[in-house]
Amino acid sequence: MKARDLRERSVEDLRELEKSLAKDIFTARFKNFTNRLDDTSSIRKAKQDLARVKTLLRQQELNAAAKAEGEAK
């Protein structure tokens, strides 16, 4: 998943994706623990995607706060 593609999504979509990725990581780790996971690299990929989503959410949050602060002055 590319950050460029994620930037086009709305905040609600990103929050939904964040929950989905967190659930995917949990299930993948559980399957890995029980030796039912074939592709262990999927855990790492999901973690990286989750980090991208969280980073974009934080950037948007900071931009909104800076914009509100700029309007207040």
**Biggest sheet, open or closed, and with what strands and sense?**
none
| Percent range for β-strand residues | under 5%
- SSE sequence, one letter per element: HHH
Low-confidence stretches: none
Structural class: mainly alpha
Distance between the termini: 38 Å
Q: Assign an overall shape.
A: elongated
Explain what you see.
By secondary structure, this protein is an all-alpha fold. Helices cover 82% and strands 0% of the residues. The chain contains three helices and no strands. The chain has helices at residues 3-7, 11-33, 41-72. The mean pLDDT is 95.
SSE inventory with pairings:
Layout: H1 3-7, H2 11-33, H3 41-72
Compact description:
With 73 residues, the protein is mainly alpha-helical. 82% of the residues lie in helices and 0% in strands. The longest helix is centred in the C-terminal third of the chain and has 32 residues, at 41-72.
